[in-house]
Design brief:
This protein is of the alpha+beta class and about 240 residues long. The chain is about 50% helix and about 20% strand. Strand 4 and strand 5 form a beta hairpin. The longest helix is centred in the first third of the chain and has 55 residues, at about 1-55.
């Protein structure tokens, strides 16, 4: 009888310890996701800050206000898009021009690139390339990737963005002249919470991978230390379904 009572106490204590460990893990994840929220919102805030600095210096164009307005809207969208980390999202796809998306992203990133003495060079296919996508989600991917390239180039340089057609896919390549990625951590890029940045969370690349996967595309990373990184994204071209 005493042995059974001791067994019951031990089971109860083990259950309590399990619940405590589980709650600690939940709190840790909440903290990491909160940090990710700051990381993701920093992108549009950086763009807004850049355009406000241009306006303050006397360079005023109407499209600056349109872009600032769209970036505020994107901050609102990011709050819902971050849910891709925790559960699948209902993504609404529309026919869009990949060149138009890339052109808009380059315009957004231009102030930050100029601030870091970096030239953004684009080579976009002449023929219209249409894809089915959630435009804001893909913009988030390209903004993340170009921002990473800028941060990897403290001494300035060039970032090239190429858009070409490859059979039934469009191929987008982002080529930088940055510090590159060491071979021993290449396989970890895109894993949850893995980052080489002191203030990063690693969720930016994770979210980018997930978004591209949801668009039935692929991401390939090639890198060499001190020479730079090339990120290649392939997305299926829009096809008209005739039933």
């Amino acid at each position: 009888m005493i042995d059974k009572f001791e067994d019951l106490i031990n089971k109860t204590e083990n259950k309590k310890m399990y619940e405590i460990a589980r709650n600690i893990q939940k709190l840790s994840l909440i903290g990491q996701l909160s940090a990710a929220l700051v990381h993701e919102i920093r992108n549009p805030l950086t763009s807004i800050k850049g355009f406000l600095q241009l306006i303050e210096s006397g360079i005023i164009e109407k499209n600056y206000f349109d872009i600032i307005h769209s970036e505020f809207q994107r901050i609102e969208l990011i709050l819902s898009e971050l849910l891709v980390v925790t559960r699948p999202q209902v993504t609404v796809f529309h026919k869009q021009s990949i060149q138009s998306i890339i052109h808009h992203v380059i315009t957004l990133m231009q102030p930050q690139a100029t601030l870091h003495n970096i030239e953004l060079i684009s080579n976009l296919a002449n023929e219209p390339l249409w894809i089915e996508c959630d435009e804001n989600q893909l913009k988030q991917v390209f903004l993340n990737l170009i921002k990473n390239s800028i941060e990897a180039m403290p001494n300035g340089g060039q970032i090239r963005i190429d858009v070409t057609k490859a059979s039934s896919f469009t191929k987008i390549r982002i080529i930088d002249q940055g510090c590159g990625i060491p071979k021993d951590i290449m396989d970890k890029i895109g894993q949850p919470f893995f980052t080489t940045k002191e203030t990063g969370t690693g969720l930016g690349m994770m979210i980018s991978h997930q978004i591209v996967k949801n668009h039935k595309g692929t991401i390939e990373i090639q890198s060499e230390e001190t020479k730079g990184t090339t990120i290649t994204i392939q997305l299926p071209l829009y096809t008209l379904n005739i039933s």
